[in-house]
Protein: Transcriptional regulator, TetR family
Organism: Geodermatophilus africanus
Amino acid sequence: MPRAADPAVRLALVETAAELLARREPVTARSLADRVGTSTTALYTHFGGMPGLWRAVRNEGFVRLGRRLAAVPRTDDPVRDLAALGAAYLDSARADPFLYRAMFDAAADLEEPAVADDAFALLVEAADRARRAGRLAEASDPLAVATCYWAGGHGLAMLVVTGVLPAEALALHGPELAVAALVAAGDEPGRCRASVLAGWSGAGARDPGPTTPG
Amino acid sequence: MPRAADPAVRLALVETAAELLARREPVTARSLADRVGTSTTALYTHFGGMPGLWRAVRNEGFVRLGRRLAAVPRTDDPVRDLAALGAAYLDSARADPFLYRAMFDAAADLEEPAVADDAFALLVEAADRARRAGRLAEASDPLAVATCYWAGGHGLAMLVVTGVLPAEALALHGPELAVAALVAAGDEPGRCRASVLAGWSGAGARDPGPTTPG
DNA sequence: CGGGGTGATGTGACGTTGTTATGTAACACC
DNA sequence: GGTGTTACATAACAACGTCACATCACCCCG
């Protein structure tokens, strides 16, 4: 029937937008079309307009974040794993701050809401493992624990990304926030601190900066 | 010598911007000029352009936030006061979410950085009172405690304001986050929980919505 | 008390943004 | 191989932030 839409153009538009974001260059319909080698019309056939492109960019951001979190190894210490997830999360925001901001400009509006849910599920699952391992209170709700944990990390990330706190605040307050959330959930303070510090130094702060596949 | 700039116009522009923000209506140079009854040029004499106007709007947002936090009464239980401050903070974000978003779009770029510092200082001072009262660890740093406390509150507020979490999450996770931060800082869990719940129900959730003086 | 100069303000125009109407060309199906 | 449907390029449109220019109000000084 119709002429098929070129999926490569769609991919190029999203990836180019992410690249411009990482370069701190303006992301406009024309700058995208020029770099990709198409016209601004392609943007409308694939995304319906700029809001649709941003939705796709946020989606891609959560896909990349999910990949990073999924790459965090699972050890037999779930609290350590939670800390490693937190470090990887904050490092993700630090490595590509403009993408992080774009993601949370409207994080509830994604092409595939599942990609954000999947990333968050890694947190919930780790919290549940910690609970089943006896590290957290038996009555603790892994979803609530993960939500508080995430809220703290997101708040710290946003304050750094928007320039309110210096970049060092991530390494300074990140572990402290993690320990707070997990001790509140039932972990024993001394043991929690040890696990968190182990997980933090073991995983975080590895990424040199924003990367664009290609 | 010269013709003096009308301070009333300046005030009207900032307050009108805040009002449009609260009404979820677009804040453009022309819509502002029309509503205030001037031309777009006034925007340039007073603020140098739209970025300058946004800087003034953020400033006004922090002034209002500071007023709200300063209105929180001081009791002889500093942990309860910290909870009341947290409740007032989150209620502020809930009452005027678009202003809150605008404030933290570039919270480090204000006309008078002191207004944000002053608001934050209320938190630090309460944390210090808690420490001196023996509720927090002697070695705890009030600044670090306040920063973690703020990061958690800001993260929760942003997740709600951007639609990721429902509005109920504020009352659901707010006290939990507060308890976590303060127990981690040294308070005794049971006593902390009681103080936080008392402070939260005593102060928060009072504002009916965004208000515009005049 | 009246000119002169300084600066705020209104008018109109410019470049850029997102968006869309129109024409064209390429693909899938009969 | 013809036909219809759809993606894409071109070009125009409305709205945005911004700025050059002209105008006017005000304050100091003679």
